[in-house]
Every structure is written in C-alpha cells, then in structure tokens.
Amino acid sequence: MPPAHPFDTSYLRDMDDGDKLKEECGIFGVIGVDEAANFVALGLHALQHRGQEAGGIVSHHPEHGFQSARRFGYVRDNFTSQSVMETLQGPLAIGHVRYSTTGSKGQTAIRDVQPFFGEFAMGGAAIAHNGNITNANALRRELIERGSIFQSSSDSECIIHLMARSLQRTIPERMEDALRRVEGAFSIVAMTRTKLIGVRDPLGVRPLVLGQVGDGWVLSSETCALDIIGATFIREIAPGEMVVITDKGVESHFPFRPRKPRFCIFEHVYFSRPDSILGGRSVYETREAIGRELAAEAPVDADLVCPVPDSGTPAAIGYSLASGIPYAMGIIRNQYMGRTFIEPTEQIRNMGVRLKLNVNRALIEGKRVILVDDSVVRGTTSRKIKEMILDAGAAEVHFRIASPPTAWPCFYGVDTPQREKLLAATMSEEEMRDHLQVDSLRFISLDGLYRAVGEAQGRNDKQPQYCDACFSGEYPVEPSDQIESGFEMKPAAE
Amino acid sequence: MPPAHPFDTSYLRDMDDGDKLKEECGIFGVIGVDEAANFVALGLHALQHRGQEAGGIVSHHPEHGFQSARRFGYVRDNFTSQSVMETLQGPLAIGHVRYSTTGSKGQTAIRDVQPFFGEFAMGGAAIAHNGNITNANALRRELIERGSIFQSSSDSECIIHLMARSLQRTIPERMEDALRRVEGAFSIVAMTRTKLIGVRDPLGVRPLVLGQVGDGWVLSSETCALDIIGATFIREIAPGEMVVITDKGVESHFPFRPRKPRFCIFEHVYFSRPDSILGGRSVYETREAIGRELAAEAPVDADLVCPVPDSGTPAAIGYSLASGIPYAMGIIRNQYMGRTFIEPTEQIRNMGVRLKLNVNRALIEGKRVILVDDSVVRGTTSRKIKEMILDAGAAEVHFRIASPPTAWPCFYGVDTPQREKLLAATMSEEEMRDHLQVDSLRFISLDGLYRAVGEAQGRNDKQPQYCDACFSGEYPVEPSDQIESGFEMKPAAE
Amino acid sequence: MPPAHPFDTSYLRDMDDGDKLKEECGIFGVIGVDEAANFVALGLHALQHRGQEAGGIVSHHPEHGFQSARRFGYVRDNFTSQSVMETLQGPLAIGHVRYSTTGSKGQTAIRDVQPFFGEFAMGGAAIAHNGNITNANALRRELIERGSIFQSSSDSECIIHLMARSLQRTIPERMEDALRRVEGAFSIVAMTRTKLIGVRDPLGVRPLVLGQVGDGWVLSSETCALDIIGATFIREIAPGEMVVITDKGVESHFPFRPRKPRFCIFEHVYFSRPDSILGGRSVYETREAIGRELAAEAPVDADLVCPVPDSGTPAAIGYSLASGIPYAMGIIRNQYMGRTFIEPTEQIRNMGVRLKLNVNRALIEGKRVILVDDSVVRGTTSRKIKEMILDAGAAEVHFRIASPPTAWPCFYGVDTPQREKLLAATMSEEEMRDHLQVDSLRFISLDGLYRAVGEAQGRNDKQPQYCDACFSGEYPVEPSDQIESGFEMKPAAE
Amino acid sequence: MPPAHPFDTSYLRDMDDGDKLKEECGIFGVIGVDEAANFVALGLHALQHRGQEAGGIVSHHPEHGFQSARRFGYVRDNFTSQSVMETLQGPLAIGHVRYSTTGSKGQTAIRDVQPFFGEFAMGGAAIAHNGNITNANALRRELIERGSIFQSSSDSECIIHLMARSLQRTIPERMEDALRRVEGAFSIVAMTRTKLIGVRDPLGVRPLVLGQVGDGWVLSSETCALDIIGATFIREIAPGEMVVITDKGVESHFPFRPRKPRFCIFEHVYFSRPDSILGGRSVYETREAIGRELAAEAPVDADLVCPVPDSGTPAAIGYSLASGIPYAMGIIRNQYMGRTFIEPTEQIRNMGVRLKLNVNRALIEGKRVILVDDSVVRGTTSRKIKEMILDAGAAEVHFRIASPPTAWPCFYGVDTPQREKLLAATMSEEEMRDHLQVDSLRFISLDGLYRAVGEAQGRNDKQPQYCDACFSGEYPVEPSDQIESGFEMKPAAE
C-alpha cells in the first residue's frame, strides 16, 4: 500500500540531489553505558551526512523494556531535547539515519524509518541496516506466501520475518539462519534485550567499525562518530563477520561462506567524512592523494586551483600541493542552504545552484581556473558552475574530477539515477567536455584511484580489490531484483 | 514494545471520562460511489461520539491501489481538506473512529489507529472493528510462536494474521476461517480491492447497519451516519452474519454457530445518538420512554425537572411529560468544551466540571429540582453537580438515573473503570444516596429498562434478551483474557 | 497596511455565520487576587460565545511589569497551559475574546487582537472593549495628522492615542479626557499598574457587570463568567459610569453627559448566555417568556414543539409550556461541529447545515411540527432546516421566531450582513413565509418582545427603553463612520 | 512591556555565540522590477550570515497597498513558498534579517522584527536599519512625553515617530528632518509607495551598496547579495549620503554635516562574506592578505597550517602561501550544525564545540600545527579547540589570530559581550597564551591589519581611517545611551 502520509519530505533533499550519488544510511549502536540513547543521538549527528531525511533510535531498559522514537528531519532537531531523550532509556540502544527510500516513489513513510522492531516468541529484537538486500523482493514474496504480514517497504523487515520463522532457538542463531538466506551488500546493527549485534556482508561492501567507550562498546558506520562520543577506535568489523556483544565482551561469528573483500571505493571518494578512517587510511589524506594523482595524470597550466565546495576541497588541496598552483576559494557556499525549499516560487526554482554557491568574482576575474570536484553524475551542476565562473570573467575553466566517470548505477544502498541519466553512460570524456563547454575536463583513471587508496599496482582486473561497479559495471553481487525489473548488466565480453 | 510516540493524546479526552462509560469505536464503509472516502469522512463525523481520539480511512482505487490516512483528533479537523482527501481515491473505502486503546496504558500510538491493513498472497485487505476480541491475548501468543510479527496492539491485527495464515483461497473464505478462531463481541467492516465486507458477532452485541446510497452500499455503526450522506436505511446486519458486497450486490454468509442475540442495552441508554434507530426503535423515543418509566417507578414532588446535559435530556423530557412537572434547563453546558485542557495549571485542574457546566442560578434558586442523568459510574461528577445546584440555592435535589446501577465493567469494546472504581460495585442505592448527599436517588429498575426498550414483560432472567453485563454481571461471552489477568466473575450462585 | 499575516482565521467561523448576528467581543478583568490571569482565562472561557476567533490577556506584576499573550483560537486551547499562564503573573489582569474584525476584510491580524497596550509618560495602560466607536475613522484621521502612529485597526487604539496626548496627569483623568471625544456603544475594561477600570457608554448599550471574589474585584461582560470563578455578582456598571478599582475599593466617575439608557435588547434574545442575569432578569427565563408570548400571539395546532438547537431551546420550552403541545428534540446537533472546515472539499462545502444538524427522523415522521428559532437573518439556514424536516416526512412545518424581523444592521459591535442581505429588509412576513415555503411563519411582535423583557406596556415609541435598531432602524447613536461610507438611515418620516 | 511571546528563539543562536562578535542585521531593497519581494527574499538569503534569528519583508503594490510578512527563522524557510510570496506583491520592496535584539533581554518579539511600518498623514513608509542609534533611549523618552505610542523596542521606530511629527511635507524631507536628530552608526533602507530610500550614517560605519538589475535599482548591505539576483554593482552609498530612488532614477541628498569616513574594519575581518567587495577590495583577498601579514609578523616553524572553520579559512590560506607551510583541513565542521539545540539534555549541553567541530585525527597526530582563527572574543572556543587538537596527538599548537585583541565592546549594531567578558580586556597577549595553554599565540598588529586592508602606512593614529573601537577603544560616535547606563570610556590620556 503506497503510504498516504502526512509529511512531504521532499524538501529535506538537497537541490542538487539529482547530481550526487547519496549514501542511503548511517547506523550506530552502543551497549554498556548509562543512557545509551544519548550516545546514539550524538553518533547519528556525526553520521548525518549519510542520511538527512529521517532518523530513529530504539533503546532497551531492564524495567521499561524496548522504547523507540522515529522522526523525519535532522538528528539535531529531533533527538536532543530532554522530552524525547527521557523516553529512550537504558544501557543499550541502536539508531539509524536514512536518506531516501527503496521503492516508495521517492517518499518515506514514518513506518519505513528504521530501526525496525519485531516481537518474537523468545523476546523482541530491533534491527537497522545500511546497504541493500539484492534479493529482497523475492524473499518478500516468499514470506507473504507463507503468511507473513509486512508493515514497511524496508529490507530490514525481511530479516526480521526470516528470524521470526527460524527454527533456531536464540536470537543470534535465528539471525545467522536468516542471514544465510539474504544476498546483498549491507552492514547491520541489531539488538535484543541484552545483546548488541553487528554484521557486515561477506564482501564487506559497506563499512562498520567497533569502538570502546568506558566499559561499553560501540558499533558505527564511520570512525568520526566514535570521536564525537570520545570512544576509542578498536577495529573494523571484518567482511562476513557477525559480532555479538554482551556484558561479557565481544564474540565473533562467521555465518557466511568466506569471500574476497570488495569494499566500496566510493566511500573513499565521497560518502565518508574526511575525518573518518577507512581501511586504516585517513579519508582526508586519501582524497588529497587523489588530487596529487590527478595533478600528475592531468596537469594544466593555470592561475588558481579551486574546489567545488565542499566535497572537492581535499582533492583540490592535493592538486595545488602537487602542482604548485595556488589554492583559492573561488566558489563560496552559502552555509544556510542544505535542504531545499518548500513549495518554492517559480523564480526560486529557477535559481538552482545560485542559491547555494556564489563565485568569488573579484578573485576569479581574468584568471585561468582549475575546478576540482569529486564526481560528475548527471552533469547538470557542473554545467551551471561553469557558467557562473565564466560570467564572473574567468579566462579559462578546467575541470578535474576526483573519480572516474560514473557510468553505472549502484544497487548497494546508494541513491543513483537510472543508468540513462548518468552522463558517462552515454558520452566519452571528450563528449562530456564538449557538453560542458569547458576548456578541459579530466577524470582520474581507475588505476589512479586505486593507487590513491593505497594499491600501488593499481586495480587487479582479475580480482578487483574494491567494489567499483559504478565505474566499471562489474557488480560483485548480482542485483537480482533489479535484473528482474529489467536492468541490463554489462555484457561479459565488454 | 510500548510506543514512545510523539503525541500525548490524553488531552483528547473529556474531563469527565472517568465518570462515563465510553464506546470505543465507530465504523463505516462505502462501495460503489465516486470518491467513497468523502462519504466515509462524513459518516465518521456523524459517528464521532463513538470515538474522539483518532480516526483512519483506507480507500482503494483501481489504478492507485490501496491508500490510507490515519490521524489523531477529530474527523472534522483531519478528513475534510482537499489535500488529504485527494490522497484517498476510488469507489471503495472504509473508516474508523476510536476512543481509546486496549492495553497501551491509556495512550494510542498512530500504528494502533485502524483500519488495519495487510498484504496477502492474493492481494491486500483492510479491516476495522468496533468491540473486543475476548481471546485476543491467547491468539496473539499463538501467532507469535508461529512466527507472525505484530505491529500494533489492536485486536484487528489478530484477524489479519489469522487470515494471512489461512489455508483457504479467497479473502472472504480466509476471513470466515479466521473468524471461527475468534471469540468476543464485535462488528467489523473490511475491504479487499473489490469487496466491502461487514460482520457482526454471533450475539450481535455491537451494532452494524446496511444502507444504500445511489447505486452504492453503506455499512455503518449507526443509522444517523446514513442520514448525513443521504443514504436509505435498509436493515441491520443480523447477529452472526457476514455480508460480502460487490458490484453484483449483497451476499450473506453465516460463519458462526447460531446463537440467541444479546444486543448491548447500553447503546439504547447512552452510546448511540438519539437520532439513530436501533432494533427498529428510535433511540430518542426509547430514552423518553425510560424517563416515563422512571417517573412511574420513582415519582417525587418537585418544581422542576432538569437534565444533566446533554445525555440526560430525552429522559428528562420523558420524566416531565409523564409527571407534569415543568422541564427546564437548570444546568447550562459550555459548548466550547468537549476536549480537556493540555498541561493545565493547578487552578484549571481543580475547576473540574465547572469548566463545562454552569447552574442556571436565577432559575434554580429556592426550587425543588429533579436532576435526570443517564448513568452513575464513579459518582464523582454527580457529586460535583449536586454541590453546584445546592450552592445556587436549590431547596431540594433529587437524582433520577436512566439506567440501573452500573456494577460491572464491560469487556466488549467499552472503556470502563476497574470494578472497584464503580460506585455501584460497593454500595447499595441507599448508600449511594448518602454518599452523594442528595435528598433522593433512584435508578430505573432493570425490568423498567427492558420495558422501555420494548420488552413488555421485562427481562427474561433465564434467557436475557440483551447484553446487560454492566448491570447484572452476567457476561454472555466469557472474558477469557480478563479472567487470565485476574478478573473475578460473579459467582454462579449469586 | 492590510496585514499579510500567517493564519487564515476564516475556519474559525461557524458555517452558518452569515445567518446569525454575532456579538463581537467579551471582556473580563480582575484585581486583588493571586494569579489574576488564571481567573481571566476562566472568565474568558465562560464568555467564549461572545467571540471565538481570538483572545488576549494582559497582566501586571509588581516586579515583572506588564505581560501579555494574544492568540488565535479558543481560550481553552491557548490560556490554560502552565507554560503560557506562568508568563502572565501578578494580581491584576484584563482579557478579551473577539469574534471578527472591523475593517480588515474579514481577517484579523494578531496585532488587532486586544487588549491593546500603550506606554505613556507616567506608565503603561492596557485596554479592551466590547462594542464600537462610531466616530473612530474621524478620530484616527485627526490623530494621524498630529503624528500618531497606529499599529492596529482596532478602535481601542484611538482611545490609547487620545490618552497619550491628553494634557491631564493621571491615567484615569486622561481616560476621562479621551472618552469625551469618543462616540458609540461600548463597554471597556482597562488597567494601569495598580488600577482596574471599567466604563460603560452613556446609553449602556453593551453590558458590563461588577463582581467580588475573595478580597478582589471583577469586571465582566456577563454574570455567567462570575459564576465560573465563584465570584459574587454585585451590580451592573451604570450606563455612562466609569469605575476605578484599586486596593482601596471601587470609585465611581461619570465622565459623560447623562442620557436615558438604551440597553441592547438582542442581548436578551440571543447574544448572552441563558445562565446570565441581565438587568436583574434571568436570560433563560426571559427567553422562556418570549416563547410564551409567541404561543399567545401566534398559536397553531400541531403535534410537537421543537427548538432549532441550541439557541431556540428556551423559547421552544416556553412555547410548549404555554401551548401544552409536547416539547421534543426534533433536530439533533452534532456536538463536534462549532468551527467550520479548513479548505473543505467540494462535497463537504455542499453539505452545509447537514454537517451540524440532523433530523430525528423517527420522531418527526408524519407530525405537524412547530420549529422555534431565535431569529431570521438571511433566511438561508431556515430554508435548509425546513427542507430537512420535510425530507424526514413531517406533515406540516410552522416557524415561530423569538425576535421581530431583523431589518437593519447593527453598528454597535455586532457582525451583521449588509442591509440588502437581511431577508426582512426586503420582504414582508408574508413574503418571507412564501420564500421559506413553510406552512406558517410568525415573528414575535416588537411589543411582545418588550413585554417578555419586563416592559408590561410594551415599547415606548417616543422614548424606547432599549436599543432595538436592528428591528426598528432607530439608531440611538448616529453611526457617523457608516454614513460617511454611504449607509442610508431610515427617513425620519418612516 | 516585556513581550510574553510564543517562540523561544534562543535555539536560533549558534552554540558559540558568546565567542564571536555578531553583526546584527542585513538590509536589502529593490525598486522597478516585477515581484520585487522575490528579489528581496533572495538578497536576504545571501545576507543571512548578518542575521539568522528573524526576517521581514514589506512590499508595495499600486492596487493592494503595503503588504508585509515577518517571521522567526531562516529566509529559506519563510520567504520562498508560493503561499507567502504571493502576499508580497508589487514592484517595490525592502527587507531585513536580524540577529538579536536591543534591550529585550535576549529575546525578540515578532513586533521587533523589521521592517517597521508607519502610516503618516501623507501616506505610509517602511524602514529597516543595520546598526545602532546611540541616542535612541533619550529620543524615545522625549517622544513618549509628547504622546507617541511605541510598539516595539526597535531603534527604527524612533525614526518613524520623528518623521510622523515632522513639520515637513514629503516623506524624504521628513526623513532628513528626523535623521538630523539621530546619532549613531547605521545604514537604512526605507520605502514609500513610490520611492526606495537608502541612507548611510555620516561616518559610513556600516556598509550599503547600490546595484542595478534590469531597469530596476537595488540597495544591499553587501555585494554578494547583488550577485545572487544577477544585479550589477554600481557603487557604495557614500558616508552621510541619502539616495532617493524613483522611476526617474537616483537622486542624492546629504542631510548630515560632512565628516571623515570611519568604515568598520571588522567587516573586512569577519562580518562580511568573503565573496563581497568592500571599499573596492575583495574581502577574500583582504583576508588572505591578513594571513600573509600574520606570517610575516609572527612566523613559526611547523608542519601544517589549519584554519578554524569556516571563518579562519582565507587567512590560513594566506599564511600557508606566504610561509610555504602546507595548508590542511585539520578540523572538520559538521555541516548539520548552525543552530543550537532546543532544550538539550545535560549531556548534549556539555558537548559544546564537539558537536560542531571534529579533529582530523589521522592528519594531526604528531604534527606541529598552526591554527588560524579570525578573532578571540571570550576565548572559550579557542580553549576547547586547543584541547581537541592536543587530544588528537598534535605535537605543538600555535594560534595565529587574524585580528588584533578585541578589548572593547562595539555599540554600533554588533552583539558583543560586556567588556569584562572580553579576554583581551583583562589580559595581555602573553597572559592569554598562558590562559589558553598553547605553544604560541599571536594576534596581527593593528598596523598590520590596516596594511592588509590597503593602508600601506598602517593606521593614522591622529585620524584613523577606519572605526576600530573594538580594538582601540576609540569610539568615533559617543555611545550616549551606554554611558548613561554606566559604561566607562577609555580615559583620553590612555
């Protein structure tokens, strides 16, 4: 049933959404501290860039049982007031921020906001995930046939129903049982009355890290959310690992058949925050290294290196340091944007990117400018930025892109346009340059990107070290539901 | 999981709630008209007295599928605006208003607001009920054991899960299958993509009527809701009957073992609107007849007959007509009450009934006054009204109550205080008179009430014609869940 | 500057507004009690029928100075919560409820909500009024010429500006000075830091009463608002009197030239609550007496006397008692109406009076029915009610109206349609009967009405005892602003 | 009367408010375009950094007259929707964003939100200002004595009342008349039905620029707001100039006695946006130049130059370019902050700056870090940042501040702590270094700052080229109201 719900949440989206890939979720969980939900709220605030549309927290208190709150909007606006937080008690809590929705025509009903909760015969469990279950539609059909009633369009609910029907006894055993039926790329935090559980899919596509705070334990999508609560970063959850954390400590399970890891390379490029650490590497330094690679691969004579704010900044700094061309803020971001406008007037709608960015006119005039951006998706923003820069009197505009051409959609928990909307799906680099009408346009090579993330030999084409499906079209997990809906994979021969 | 939800709905309750029995729900459904949800909204507005806390509508449109909206507050405030109603399209819709909740500690989560929707293998169905399933807890435990995940604390959800697991093929067959597992006193409206379904429990405790509007059909808790949409009253659904209405017409099923009907006698006294017709009798005229019976059973020499507004009005008119003592509005109701106050100040809280009622001082002064009320539940309001009347200078105060002493809680979809809170559970009529400190207090006899509703011979004690458990303690359906929770039935010998 | 304000308050109006005269304001003030604003909130709640659109309270605390809150909506919803009331401290407070606005095209800006506050050289004063200043436009023009800046379209503001510019020293002296420039029909409550002030215009058109509560004093539009706070009714403020109340007691001033009183007779018919006392008479009993007069003046053979709820009720009871024809509730009011719908759908809009009233079908069928209503303004509601009654199968419909034909607009603080919209302005009683298509239609005579309010000789045409301009067209205060805007007075010869 | 208003606007403030000087207002006006208010909304959005608490727009339409809307919160949230903007019609509009309030104990009532409107004998005028009238209290007292009624605590209202009482005929003449009574540092935009008026105080302390868009004219606090609407920057309004713009063009008046200009030097340091042009200089380039000056004045051996985001960024880039020490983002700002939390829990409150900033741990560890910030006000933030950097393992921390020590409050429209709260008011540079416990702390010299803004010879102490009272204690306009309230000026001898 398509939800007829009270809030039009479309205003929570950035005006340039169509022109960025967007991570769909951030997850966080804490056990063994006083008022765990407070920690979760802070952690989710630090993970807000992974999902700005809605958030939810479930906690468990020995006396009051499970408690939950789910809201549209920012963590900051929903999960900081006394009145809400005092309804989320106890030493154990998990939380979730989400960007958008799977399947519900671009709108989220509050019932689709995670964590998802289910009452089993042996007690309740809550679960939240980041990523995507690629056989969710098939599983859902099967479960409905058997008499399960779904209440949301969330993938997490499949796992809960599989667990409810499992023949195993304990919740962790039921979860292992359920996970073996599930395909996809996902990280999970879950909780029972006494356990915090974390899972990473066999390929480890989506991130999940373990931290320690006082006597308690933390699970988080990124390390930057450990920092905000003063937790110590212990290690990443291993691909295919399931950790069950109780007051006795952390126990590891490996429910899946072992596979070679394929971490999402785009987390390094854009999704993760620059102050997080991924695979032992500072994201900021990786992005600076991408800029240095770009300067080596695609040098150009110019007066200024300017980032497209804010995501292009570290790569622009790297490009400047490697090339010796001065770094400057040629484009200023209006810090009062972030969400788009509600029912805007015609005139506002037409403003587009000018509401958000302004050219530093006096600086740019007469200069040859290198603009560094993280990616080109549909190309609409790039084109408008180019026009603004030229209007301001720049002599030349050179685009340098900190990722290879995005030619394929991601089906692993990232909001991507349909393939035909991706500029690189239909145009060569040369054609894109003509389309954008800039003096030059260069993307980092796939090998260059692999080098920047630490693979000195570049990409191993036989056995790629990362998931780079959005660039290469090689999907490490078959997107079954998508293929069923008509998506055409890249021919093997290609 | 106890819901930690955003709205404190307690303000939606009347300040005198504790002192009235409250019907918990009204239901309404329409098939075969344009924009069926508009009719449902009007019908629910007319049934608002049966549930003021929240309301919901589900509709089905051939193209857009099932659509729903559920809101706290009045129908008038939620289901009349263009923007909401245009999301509820199609020729088939059902709706529900509810007063309070079963089991959730006095607060309703929005997910407990009906109609309840479930997706089955052969398509979806929505369901709403008025009444109570007396073995809901046991059914729920059994279903959870088998792996069903509940999303609400609503009884309706048991029926949906039973249907989801039924081995039968069609939805009506599955519903029959499910209903055979269910005990209690309830009326149901349900819908599939093409069918409107109505069910009344085997005893016919709760009302449900059938009407016709243009080429379409209507199901409603009361006839007053047929009037508002200009529908013609056709007949009551029979106790134990299940009607399945399609564009081919109305089909009758009788899934239950036949039993003698036991319609709720309190619907005549208080729950139903005076302009409804129950069992072929005008509710208003029945109440006037109760007043006449009372005048005959419990005459008293006095100057004025005054109703306790508004529910005592028809009985007071009857008493006046039978006794010849002039009828007068001795107590004036403030029409701007209806809901209570949000976080009231101490002083406001202490005002109690004075916020709602004021004595017509100039009229009352020096007079011997007969006050006619519909019932005495906890006696708190009666006591305050007595004080107000005496403060205003009345010479004598005589209470006449249009129902027998309410000595037992109702477990069939009515919000009643626990037994020990009922004044009549612990006191005789004489003791209540002393407690209320009035010059006289008389309740209509149970036989008198039966006569007023048309049973010339009064109550048939061997085979009572109505459910009168709240007066007699004789429960026609065993309240299993309640007994499990410690409720003590009246000893058989009593 | 026409206000561009955030709330469309039109939804606060009854759907039948166009068909009732509406009192525009209620006023209330208290001095000498703890937390005076709490008393004012309760008083305004009891006066809510005099103005449902908005309300305001100003209080004064020796330490915190003047405090105020002004809100759209019901008193109950705005002035009962701890959080609002704790911002309104001190032993002295005044308040105001308003129905609609003068001059602002049917919408009220929050700045037009009274009480109005001004800071003078010798301290601040707040003021609220009920009624109308008939030379407000001329005064306003004069004040603007002299350099006063108006912030609202409220008449009260003229008085504040006149006071600010007065050459007198004390605030009461300045108020006397200001009042001498003012023409119209109004009652005023005002306050300084230490004084509560009440004023009634020279003719005493609008009501104002004095009460005592503990050691404190109360001013109120009606006595029913004394009851709610447990205050004792002392006396009416005399026409032309100004009372200045301090902790030393009540002091009387008479700033105006003495005139014969002309109290508004329509307060008896409709505006005041039935449990109020006006001119020493119970409003309820007056209305019952009107019914008795009507029965004598306009008898008819019939089966039932039914009120048009709720305002026709006392007169219907009187008619029944005098005629011996049984009283019955033939029309039931839906108690969940009261305000109209927001942006209603087409279908809802077309429902009109059916959303609010339903015929008690079973009772009416085949009967000859007398319908008693308080007044006929535009006749639109009367016509719809007649249709509903006939649809329900009534054999005959006889209208009896508890006031004479309303043929002239009121300019003294009452919301009336323009003269050409008044049915009685263009039709005789006979023509109205034909227009409404009823079996008979009779209004009480003007003399009959005067008798019912206690003038045994009827109306003194040379020197009418009341203001009855709405019936007679004889305006006791010249409506200067209206004449300036083109209103044509009744020719003297008529 | 202290306002008892519905919104607690304190949540609109940054959590670090106490530690930044804050410009109090931005102003914008347009004449001669279709739907002028749309332009004003866009302009105010670009000026949002000058005032985040509330905004207002007044427009004038030949047919509908003056229209206005005033709201708390961001321009983006209030002035972009169709429904609001269609109430602001016509070719002429002015607007205002404000940060905080003068005199109302830290809270703004909606009536204090500008533009302020007044109706005069010859028509209405609206006015908005940025800055402060230093003799406002005295003027207000005088006006109240004469009988003016004030409705707000805004300085602008003094000007309106002076204009209302002026003996001159036209509104521009009356404004000149009024301005001659006014002392202070302010820029004004005002409008009549046909004229857009701009004024800058005689010293030109606050900025105001003139632009052209199509056939229309624009007044704005900064040039960055011309860019967003595509307007061309024409020139700055001269100190002491009043421009009156009609459809005939721009007319200049000079109502004040000529004085040497004293533009606010802090606009260059912090208040203005980096993409604005002030006094013919790019703000960004000035800030970069400040960084270069700082590198020359206060060099230090280190590994990284990091800005305190976002205001320290251009100076950090300049420092890096001049020193050759690599620039890096050592501190990452959470872009979902900006406003503080509503009723935060204890734990949230204690988080302070960590909610907003996180150290880029992997980058900082073991490094000697130069932190560049724009200013030090109370020092609380600087201290917390230092702790975070050291916690992350930095080897050394060196603070470089892009302005001289802030030792004096600003009384010209800037929100500054009281003098004793300013760190530099009670400590020498050395003491501040010890207080902050950093390895070194250096402020740019006052001469260095003058050089960076283009005064090659540095500051002319006899006749300073700028207002630098916050650094020097030399106030170019006597802060009369403040002195009256007890503020002690720096002794002349000092």
Automatic annotation (TrEMBL), chains A, B, C, D:
[4Fe-4S] cluster binds at C264, C410, C467, C470. Residues 25-248 form the Glutamine amidotransferase type-2 domain. Gene3D superfamilies: 3.40.50.2020, Glutamine Phosphoribosylpyrophosphate, subunit 1, domain 1. The active site is at C25. The keyword Iron applies. Its EC number is 2.4.2.14. It catalyses: 5-phospho-beta-D-ribosylamine + L-glutamate + diphosphate = 5-phospho-alpha-D-ribose 1-diphosphate + L-glutamine + H2O. Binds 1 [4Fe-4S] cluster per subunit. Binds 1 Mg(2+) ion per subunit. GO terms for biological process: 'de novo' IMP biosynthetic process; purine nucleobase biosynthetic process. Pathway: Purine metabolism; IMP biosynthesis via de novo pathway; N(1)-(5-phospho-D-ribosyl)glycinamide from 5-phospho-alpha-D-ribose 1-diphosphate: step 1/2. Its cofactor is [4Fe-4S] cluster; Mg(2+). GO terms for molecular function: 4 iron, 4 sulfur cluster binding; amidophosphoribosyltransferase activity; magnesium ion binding. PROSITE patterns: GATASE_TYPE_2. Mg(2+) binds at S311, D373, D374. Keywords: 4Fe-4S, Glutamine amidotransferase, Glycosyltransferase, Iron, Iron-sulfur, Magnesium, Metal-binding, Purine biosynthesis, Transferase. NCBIfam families: purF. Catalyzes the formation of phosphoribosylamine from phosphoribosylpyrophosphate (PRPP) and glutamine. In the C-terminal section; belongs to the purine/pyrimidine phosphoribosyltransferase family. This is Amidophosphoribosyltransferase. The lineage of its organism: Bacteria, Pseudomonadati, Pseudomonadota, Alphaproteobacteria, Rhodobacterales.
